[in-house]
Amino acid sequence: MSSSIDPSDEDDNSSQVIQQQESTIANSSIDPASEDINGEINYPPMGFGKHKPKMLLMGLKRSGKSSISSVVFRKMAPQDTLFLEATTTIHKESMQSFMDFQIWDMPGQIDYLDGSFDVDSIFTGVGGIVWVIDAQDNYMEPIGRVTDTILQLTELYPEIKYSVFIHKTDSLTEDYREDTIRDIMQKTSDELFDNGLENPPVSFHATSIYDHSIFEAFSKVIQGLVPQLPTYEALLNTVAATCRFQKVYIIDVMSKVYIASDSSPADTDAYELCCDYVNAIMDLSDMYGWDRKQQQAPDARTRDICAHTAESMVSSVRNHTLYLREINAFLALIGVSTEPKFQQEKAMVDFNVQTFQDTMIR
């Protein structure tokens, strides 16, 4: 075997770094994986153990809340959201994915802080609130509503994190788009500061359901709900260094949001490639895949295949090589590389990613 695909001393040391961090993640709140009576590994929901957080989608009527929820979490085509009816009651949707949490789509015509509602029943257990502002409409009223909401809830529920989605920005001209985003951010921050709230836990994201910006924004929101995020980022930094990945993600294959990535600068093009790659893999799995737990393997070779996690690699995609490795039923590690000899070094990559996977499930 050529020495180019054997792990070098440097890569051995880097792999040991991954193994040394096992104790850190093992002592976190992730439940340990268990085996059923057939020897199959049962992976727990990641990040929360038994805690089931809520995320609220809030905003004025027709701001795009239901469209966002449908596109991200129900895989609805963006053009089909034109036929969605207006939300008139609280729509609760349980997401059983990499972690078990709920999405509450809140009707925009109701003020839940006016005293006629049980505030505790709505906001207790909420991990994050996403407030959607329609950038194509008059945004002064929603800015007033979101600042009032933050000011009233901060003292009662200090653990809640807030995200403002400046939505429907895709149809704005570039100059007007930047001015609108800057104006909304400035006015919201000034209003909070004038009311005595310095450094509020608010993030801003320009979004559209017609591109990948909505998935990237929700990725940032979800990451705020994952308590082990620093550990995941540290592990992915090591994986990126040892495998020579330009960027590496842990992606939820159903929603295409990523729960963690390495700490290198964000790369929108790389993330778009990964999303398209996941779509292709999922389409192929729907046509040719099978339930490895339910179907009895007919021969030794098939049983050996079923015992291993799924993986895939494709090269020469806009001068990038994409590498995918299944972590569990919900998550996959996807690395993006521009190394010309990546294919020859795949054995080293497999070894390091397997070490990372073993660490994640402990």
TL;DR of this structure?
The chain is α/β, with parallel strands linked by helices and 362 residues long. The chain contains 11 helices and 13 strands. The relative contact order is 0.14.
Give an account of the 3D structure.
Helix 1 packs parallel to helix 11, helix 5 packs across helix 6 and helix 8 runs antiparallel to helix 11. The strands form 3 sheets. Strands 4-5-3-6-7-8 form a 6-stranded mixed sheet, sandwiched between helices. A 5-stranded antiparallel sheet has the order 10-9-13-12-11. Strands 1-2 form a two-stranded antiparallel ribbon. Strand 9 and strand 10 (258-261) form a beta hairpin. The chain has helices spanning 9-20, 22-26, 65-73, 119-123, 140-156, 174-194, 213-223, 229-243, 268-288, 300-306, 346-360; strands at 34-35, 41-42, 54-59, 91-96, 100-105, 126-134, 161-167, 202-207, 247-252, 258-261, 311-317, 320-326, 331-337. Mean pLDDT is 80; it is low at 1-11 and 13-51. It is 38% helix and 21% strand.
